[in-house]
Amino acid sequence: MPLKDLPADARPREKLLARGPGALSDAELLALLLRTGLAGKGVLQLAQELLDSFGGLAGLLHATADDLKRIKGLGGPAKRAELVAVLELARRVLAEQLRERAALDTPQSVKEYLQLHLAHKKHESFAVLFLDNQHKLLALEELFRGTLAQTSVYPREVVLRALHHHAAAVVLAHNHPSGTVQPSRADEALTQALKAALALVDVRVLDHMIVAPGLALSMAEKGLI
After folding, report:
1. Extents of the domains making up the chain
2. 88-110 per-position pLDDT tens digit
3. pTM higher than the cut 0.85
4. Looking at the DSSP assignment, which residues form a beta bridge with residue 139?
5. What is the DSSP track for 118-129?
6. Is 187 helix (H, G, I), strand (E, B) or coil?
7. Superfamily, domain 103-218
8. Contacts for 74-83 with beta carbons within 8 Å, 24 or more apart?
9. 170 sits in which H/E element
10. H-helix or E-strand containing 212?
11. H-helix or E-strand containing 152?
12. How far is CA 154 from CA 49, 85, 144, 181, in A?
């Protein structure tokens, strides 16, 4: 059912204009982008199904065009392209806001930044946040992919990238697609190896974060740094 066929008091567009965007649910906002549903499935129902499929807005934010193609009703390239463009704009705005903070100097701010970039990746990814001496973000680089038990993380490469960015400190990070954020023995050993290597060039390891959808753990908070 198209939005125009909904009762007047149920139309997201009219509701937004009359009461502001904050009055709309996630599904209603998404329905405004989708505009039409399918035969036998209204646009609000399609929007809610899309949110449910990706675990809410946070999961949808990381959906690709191929991910969306699997949802019945989003097979057309025009609708998928429009939705992917909006999601990319949202990601860029969030990343820009986080980068412009005075500093990524608290575990919570780092967790938020890494949730945005790593938590919903389907493969395990090891990344490094390079910071200046005021803990402002210089760069985030994904350096290695694969489980830490199977893919070597080379301390030399991390040191070279730290020198390239003239970093004074780093935050190590990786995601666990399994959904758990408990550090393994391999995580702890890697942290200590990188800490020792980076100390040789006077770069401090402030933390090692492990993230998963909706979860994040700071190894520094756990006393493991």
Report:
1. 3-97, 103-218
2. 887 777 667 666 655 566 778 78
3. no
4. 130
5. TTT-SS-EEEEE
6. helix
7. Cytidine Deaminase, domain 2 (3.40.140.10)
8. 74/50, 79/34, 82/33, 83/33, 83/34
9. strand 169-175
10. strand 204-212
11. none
12. 42, 35, 9, 22
Identity of the residue numbered 111: K
Q: What amino acid occupies position 132? A: D
Q: Are 111 and 96 in contact (CB under 8 A)?
A: no
CATH, domain range 3-97? 1.10.150
CA nearest to 209, candidates 153, 171, 179: 171
Contact 224, 172 (CB under 8 A): no
Taking only the tens place, the pLDDT of each residue in 4-61 is 555 544 577 788 788 887 887 888 888 888 877 777 777 888 888 888 887 777 777 7
3 state SS for 51-115: HHHHCCHHHHCCCCHHHHHCCCCCCCHHHHHHHHHHHHHHHHHHHHHHHCCCCCCCHHHHHHHHH
Q: Rounded CA gap, 11 and 53, in Å? A: 23
First to last CA, the chain: 55
167 in Cβ contact with 132 (< 8 Å): yes
Quote the CA–CA distance of 50 and 69 in Å, as a whole number. 11
